[in-house]
Structures are given as C-alpha cells and as structure tokens.
Write a structure and sequence with these properties.
Elements lengths: L2 H5 L3 H17 L14 E6 L2 H6 L5 E10 L16 E10 L6 E9 L9 E4 L5 E7 L5 E4 L11 H5 L1 H7 L8 E6 L1 H9 L12 H4 L6 E6 L2 H6 L5 E8 L1 H10 L9 E9 L6 E10 L2 E6 L14 E6 L5 E4 L25 E6 L8
Antiparallel strand pairs: 1-2, 1-8, 2-3, 3-4, 4-5, 5-6, 6-7, 7-8, 9-10, 9-16, 10-11, 11-12, 12-13, 13-14, 14-15, 15-16
C-alpha cells in the first residue's frame, strides 16, 4: 500500500493539497474561462508515438495530461464530506519512457496581471515553485511551457542526489513547450487513476468505517518471536481507541459534518523496558487518505509543547488499521526528551493493527 509514499516523501503532497484547497476556496474555483469556458472540468493531453520520441531523444515524457478543475487524484477518502466539493486549479501528470505508472503534481493557476482578467496564465506550487505556464492557441490546444525538470523532486534535490542521479530522476531537456489537445474530462480522470490504482482489499475509508458516536479498539501484542527478529523495536503492545471519554469530547464540541476533524483518539503502549502502560491522547483531522493526529495535553501536563508530535492513521487491508510514527510521536519514548527529536530512530515506524473488542482497550 502507498502508506509510506504519503507519510514520507508525500508529506509535501499532502501539505500541497491542503494549501490548494485553501487557495481555491479563497480565490474561487474555475475562473479561467479560456481553459474552461462553461465552468466544467477541462482536460488536455497528448500521447507521443515512437516516431516522435525517436526524433526527440532528450524528451523523456511519453504521455502528458493537464487537468483543470476538481481534484482528479483523490478518491473517497478521509477528508470531511463538507470539503468534498473543493476545487483545485491545475494538475499535470506525465509518464516517462519505460515507466509503468504516471507521476503527478498540482498547483494553483492565475493570470499574471493586476486585473486578473488578461495576460498569460501562471501555475505555481508551494515554496514559490512553478508548475507550468499556460496558453490556448487559435486551434484550442493548450500550450504548456515552463515545466520544471524537478517538478516531482524536492527543491534541493540536485544537491542532495548528485548530478548523475538528479539527471536520471528529473525530466529531460526537451520536456517542455507541449501542445496538448482538448480531451473529454473522463480521459484525464482515467489517466490520473493510473497513478495509485484502487485496492479493493482496503475497503471504505476510516471516516466511513468508524462513526463519530462509535467506540473502537485496534491493537497488537508482539510475541517473543517477533521481538527477537526485531531487536530495534521498543513496542511490546499497542492499542488505538476511542472510548467514553473521547466520544463525550466529540459529542460536546465536535461537528459530525466535518468528521473526523476534531476527533480525539487515545493510544496506549507498553515497551520492553517499561511494562507499565502509558496512554497518550491525540486530536485528529482527515487529510487525503489518512488521519493526521497531533499529540494533545488534555489528559496530562507536559514540560514542552507536544502539538508537533504527530502520528498518522490509515485503513489497512482486510479491516486492519495502519499507524505510522515517522517522527517520534508515540509515547514509547518521553515526548519531551532528546530521544523524541527528529525521525523515529527505532524499529517503531509503522504498525498493522487488528480490530479488537473494546474490553482490550479498557484503561
């Protein structure tokens, strides 16, 4: 499953989606009438044949599509239903020669003029990066230019990867100034669907599986055999749950229309070093296909700010729940200690948790 993709390199993508939503909500959706004269989602694309690619050896892109309108990437996910109609601006997806699946990026598109009614269209990304520049020619084709070679890489990736690896992962020197034909919106949706195909085993998202007024309990106990084969794992047992306290908290101040935003969960852990159970409360919000849950001081006092200590929940196959702990957000260590600084150092980064009876999560 694509859990690590979202939680590690894809954290940037998650933040981008949130920023896109905020930008679109503030600016109003679908206002570039030359891309979408009737306000409908618009699609442009091109698939290059072998003759074209042979004549352009420095062009890596074999397929390219640009979509303007509602998000074509996300499927029914963990974001509240109140946000389900959020419109983003622009999405581009490309498949390079020999690749089995496309890559994609999204940004917000506006005219580069003070009146916002004329001039060229610029599509930006986070960190003041450029997604593309757009123009419609006299035949209704989309001219897509200024496509950056590192569009799918981090901003400082050339320095981190080195020149050879950067050139391997970046787009080619001839991957720009594309002329894309108008296509049905369904064509773009089908192309974006190739990025992360649905896994039927995952079932409905947690937001649908776990109701606002419903208690739940997920967990795992690790036996001696497992711990022996994972000597760097600290966790001996773990429980993730919502019980009477968490249910009452949401009932008094939560908004069911925005579920799971504002939902409290509790996580209890024991470790090899300490058999005594430690329970920590987290406040969650839906984000893409996961719950982002920040540690909360509701149930205890801390000598430091713990709001940046986060864990992530995601549906797993066959009714399981995945918990990711990429940056020392679990109380298997003192959250105010140096051991909790930075990325998780032990083998306690991802857990596959089974549903359990509520009694297994009793205090």
């Amino acid at each position: 499953m694509a859990f690590s993709k979202i939680l590690v390199p894809g954290v940037l993508g998650v933040a981008l989606l949130g920023l896109l939503a905020d930008t679109a909500a503030a600016d109003g959706a679908l206002k570039l009438t030359e891309l979408s004269p009737n306000g409908a989602d618009a699609c442009f694309g091109r698939v290059y044949d072998a003759a074209h690619l042979k004549a352009h050896p420095k062009q890596k892109v074999a397929r390219i599509f640009f979509y303007y309108g509602h998000d074509p990437v996300s499927r029914p996910n963990e974001e509240p239903t109140a946000n389900s109609d959020t419109s983003y601006n622009g999405f581009v997806t490309t498949t390079v020669r020999g690749a089995k699946a496309p890559e994609w990026a999204g940004g917000w598109c506006n005219r580069e003029s003070e009146d916002d009614k004329s001039g060229p269209i610029h599509c930006g990304m986070d960190c003041d990066r450029t997604l593309a520049s757009l123009k419609i020619d006299d035949k209704g084709r989309l001219i897509l230019s200024d496509l950056q070679p590192d569009i799918y890489l981090d901003a400082d990736s050339e320095e981190e990867l080195g020149t050879a690896e950067y050139d391997k992962q970046a787009l080619g020197s001839q991957d720009d100034d594309f002329r894309l034909d108008p296509m049905p919106a369904a064509t773009c949706k089908a192309e974006f669907a190739r990025i992360d195909p649905l896994d039927p085993a995952l079932g409905p998202p947690l937001r649908e599986r776990l109701k606002p007024d419903q208690a739940f309990c997920y967990g795992r106990d690790y036996d001696a055999s497992h711990l022996g084969s994972h000597p760097d794992q600290l966790t001996q047992s773990i429980r993730v749950f919502r019980g009477p306290v968490e249910l009452a908290s949401f009932a008094s101040g939560g908004d069911a229309a925005n579920w799971p935003d504002g939902a409290d969960i509790a996580v209890s852990v024991t470790t090899r070093q300490k058999s005594a159970k430690v329970t920590q409360t987290y406040s969650c919000q839906g984000e893409a296909d996961q719950w982002r849950c920040a540690a909360s001081a509701k149930m205890s006092d801390f000598s430091c700010g713990i709001a940046q200590k986060e864990i992530f929940l995601k549906r797993g196959a066959d009714g399981t729940m995945m918990l990711a702990n990429p940056n020392s957000g679990l109380a298997i260590v003192d959250l105010c200690s140096k051991a909790a600084d930075g990325k998780t150092k032990s083998d306690d980064k991802v857990y596959r948790l089974q549903p359990m009876p509520q009694s297994a999560c009793a205090p």
